[in-house]
Amino acid sequence: MTRSLLAVGKRAARFPRAEQELEKRFKDRRSHGLRVSERWFFTTMLQLVRNLYPGSQFVASRGWLYRCVHRLGIGRRTKTNCKSHSASDRIPAIREWLVGFRRMLCTPLSKTMKMDPTWGRFPPELRFNCDQVPLAFVNDMDRTFDRVGAREVWIAQAGEGAWEKRTCTLQLCFSPNPTRPQPRPAIIFRGQGIRLAETERAAWHPDIDVSFNTKGWANNEWCLTNTPKQLLPAIPGLRGQEALLICDNLSGQCSSEFRSTMKKTCNVLVWNLPAGTTDITQPVDAGYGRAVKQRIGKKLAQWLEDEEHLQKWEIGALKASERRILLTIWVSLIAAVRYPSGELLINWVCRF
Asked: Which residue has the higher pLDDT, 176 or 200?
């Protein structure tokens, strides 16, 4: 908003041919995932001006750099893609997967099988997406207001920063048809879950499936036991009809045992996404999971508005059992579709 209010007309480039070549080299460098620094801009532009405009006087100042990147539509960005290959490099694998996926949807298992004229073998109410989201107790709380020009922006970390690390794993599963009941969210906490007080178990939200294992992750055993349990309540009216579960290449979801278990218990066909493309092809990873984490951060901020809660937070007196209870409540209010906020979130993901 500040930039738009203070916007001025773009100043014409003094060395247009050099800047055009600079833009080409910049695009080529970024297409290979290479970092571009201020020094690279300065040294490359000085070399181009010497070659294309012999005898010209050029000073590679910060003012020139600001105006140049403004003309070229370039800005400072934070690293977001942790994959070893860029999105464009993974497009061929995604296209190949889509061809096979479409072929499967258009091919009936028998001559008597009913096919949807638009969606083929699996209409939207028979399709489910499933993915795991690493979840910390503190989410999306790394920004604050501070004085303009402050050299250091410090935010106190409760629990010495440990609460910002992964506390549990949240498995989300949803269907792109928001009018039907959605599968219950499942949370996997770290630990054995043996020495837990009954008061804590009673305080967990009943709409969340809570389980424990040593690493707090969806291992092979957990996938075989809990994924059918999570999916079955969402398909009571679909018994007798085969459903589709789209998931990533987690080892527990790629095994033949998992496929046969899902087919036998839920009449579900498991279809894995191409490896290394979940951040692009999986709507849970690319949208739903991130939205849930952001809203949990907002719930935590609202919870801290209470003075008693804030005091516990500041002195680090919030127990692990209390954090587990709060996470189950917040996830239920956000991800469960029976609540208004959950309904809005599911509808948004379906449009996405």
From this structure: 200
With contact defined as beta carbons under 8 Å apart, do 183 and 131 qualify? Answer: no
- Please indicate, yes or no, if residue 148 is contained in any of the structural domains: no
Residue 204 per-residue DSSP state: S
Give the DSSP H or E segment for 71: helix 62-72
CATH of residue 304: 3.30.420.10
**pLDDT of the residue at 78:** 60
CATH classification of the domain holding 64: 1.10.10
Close Cβ partners of 213 (under 8 Å, ≥ 6 residues apart): 188, 190, 219, 221, 222
Distance CA 244, CA 237 (A): 15
CA 18 centroid distance within chain: 40
Q: What is the mean pLDDT of residues 125-151?
A: 73
CA gap 46, 119 in Å, rounded:
57
Per-residue pLDDT of 273-307, as tens digits, reads 998 888 888 888 768 888 888 888 888 888 888 88
- Token pair of 104, please? 């499967």
CA distance 218 to 76: 37
Q: Is residue 192 part of a domain?
A: yes
Hunting for tokens 């709409």 — which residue is that?
A: 207
Domain that holds residue 28: 13-72
CB 334 within 8 A of CB 295: yes
Residue 141: band (very low, low, confident or very high) from pLDDT cuts 50, 70, 90: low
pTM for the whole structure:
0.69
Report yes or no on 91 lying in a domain.
Answer: no
Strand partners, 161: none
Retrieve residue 91's tokens.
Answer: 């497009």
Count structural domains, the chain.
2
Q: What's residue 351's pLDDT?
A: 42
